[in-house]
Design brief:
75 residues, alpha/beta, 3-stranded parallel sheet, 3 strands
Length: 75
Amino acid sequence: MLNSDLSGQVAVVTGGAGVLGSAMAKGLASAGVKVAILSRTASKVEAVVAQIEEMGGTAMAVSYTHLTLPTKRIV
């Protein structure tokens, strides 16, 4: 059986405001993980954080509008 007590661990969930991402974030939080949730839509990601906090978990919202890629190719 898998260890479902992940207390003290930290996870970053990208796309965390979507259906699958929010389910993963909530599942991790219910196992004691502190979750940073990234999404392009601030209002949606904040709603997921509120749901996690209501269930007693710890989460933070990070919203972004674009990703800046490096100008040099990294090999």
